[in-house]
Amino acid sequence: MNKTLEKRILTFAFLVLTLTIAVNTGFNIEGFRRDYRDGIILRCQSLAAGLQNAIENVLALGLGLEEMEGVNLRCQEIVTTDPEIIYCLIENTVGTPLYSSDPSFYFTAGVEFVSALSKNTSILNFPHLGRAYDVSQPVYDADGTLAGRIRIGFPESILEKRTAKVFQRSMIILGIALSVVFGLVVLFAKRDLIGPIGRLCTMAKSVAAGDFKVTVPAMSTRDFSDLATALQEMASSLQSRDQKIRENYRELEETNRQLQESYEYQERIGAELGRSREMYRSLLEGASDAIVVSDDNDRIVLINRAAEAFFGITLDKVEGMNLFSALEMLQVEHIEEQYGLHRAVLEGKIAEAEVSFVRPGDQRLIVGWIVGSPVVGKDGKHLVQATIRDITKEKEIKENLEKSTRELQRLNQMKDSFLGVASHELKTPLTVIIGYAELILGEMSGRLDETVLGMVQHIADAGERLSSIVRDMVDVSMLDNNRLYLRNRAVDVNDVIRTAVTELEFFFSLRKQSFEFRLDDDLPPVFCDPDRLVQVVTNLVGNAIKFTPDEGTVTLETRRASSLRTPYNLDLAEDTEIKPIGNKPISYVEIIITDTGIGIAEPDQIHIFDKFYEVGNIEEHFTGKVAFKGKGAGLGLAIVKGIIDVLDGEIWVESPGCDPERCPGSAFHILLPVEGSEPGDSIGT
Q1: DSSP bridge pairs for 367
Q2: pTM, whole model, 2 decimals?
Q3: Which of 247, 530, 575, 642 is deepest in the core (most CB within 10 A)?
Q4: In this predicted model, which residue has the larger pLDDT, 110 or 478?
């Protein structure tokens, strides 16, 4: 193994060193070649620049480029002084040679352009010279016009000769360096790698043979020294584990002994469980609820004393008997449900059901609530424990409550019928009373004295108030029976509000109250019955007048509003109190009637829209259309709520509470959907 590793290390080192030195030498040779070429090009550019200055000085005297003398000698001098330059010539603007270091050297048709190193330096291929570098320099006359071009060239073979000499020297240096470095690598590998690895292998074999007390050999490097130390620690760890295995074996023997003692302890626990079963039986016997235990074959295993009293039977009569045969004997109703409960509990579920039967002893109808739960017997079999709570009295109370509820619903229907009949029956005599009273006060007023006229006036006023109450009763009856007809059309809410308030201006002046409009002039039309909307506004503003002290203020505001609530649906409202929420905002027109009155208590705000509900103490009630705190039959706000519901709108009240001293005021809010979401034209048949 050591020799194989040694060969691999030395081979790898030889390849790496050879490749590294070869690449470095290649880069050095290429760099030398490039530098040498650039140096010759720089000399050519320098010589061309000197010749350019001399020619341009002559051109500045007015001579032409073709008329100069001694130029050929100057070109020959350049070539002679620099042996690496092979030609120097001067050509005119069209490329025709005028002067040359060798009159026989001209660019022939066989010269090929190879590539360009820069703007003024190119590589050309001559048929008789091979590749050569051509450096050109432009010549300008006195007025700056291009007069010709100087061209100086040197062959590429010069670079190849110089590069070959450098390559030979580099190869010699490469061989010497490779020999020296590779010798050092071999020495290092044998002394610092192969030797320590061999000693570590010997140490590992000793540990594998069971010799855990090994000695760390001397190592030349810290890494191998750490590895040797780790091997020594591993040997110590293996020695510790060997000792622990021996100790675990002794502990295993001790554990076996403890298991024997545990088995004896389990036997004692079994005896304790037997006593616990007896305790469980005694708890069953003392339980207040009836308990019946049956097995998976439907046989009754156990019933407690409460069950004997509940069913009116004894244990010795039913023990071992089929459970459902016993239920049939007791004439229990819906035995199929009890069988389903029994099966569900045997499957591990907890089930509940109701059981009813006539108890044999007193012939009384008994109702119980069964809770079945699974238990496991002493032999591991599944049992069903049924706990029965007597709910006979609770059942009777529930039935009585349901009976009372039905009676209340019947009375409510009778009340609604009475309202309908009474309102219609009162309209005819009231019409007669009011008609004759108006006739007496009008055409016959001159025939009666002042005292009689005052009495008749009181009769007329009372008739009008009673007629208003009858109209409210008719409206409530129509709302209850879904027979309130609407004549809906597109309406400007502001116009309707102004009409309603105009009818109440007299009462504002009578109570010395002020009224403020805050109407939004840019409201969309609302699809509704304008007469019914006038009735809504009149009722709300009339209430504001009555519950606001003299010299108070009533404000009526309109504005745009939007809500995610869909328009109120009367059919949906009969089934649920939940208002549906839409995905997009719905446009509404909001009407807000605010007063500076005595306010409304928070408990009253919940019931304020109920029929016949009046805020405050009944002792404070007195008649009067706009008298302070004057209250009527409690139908006005119920009618308002009904009309708004029919219009698919919403109404609510906001008030900090009732305080006749501080007068915190109230605000009634009405939301009416704009013309885009039209409610039905009418409700009823």
Answers
A1: 356
A2: 0.40
A3: 642
A4: 110
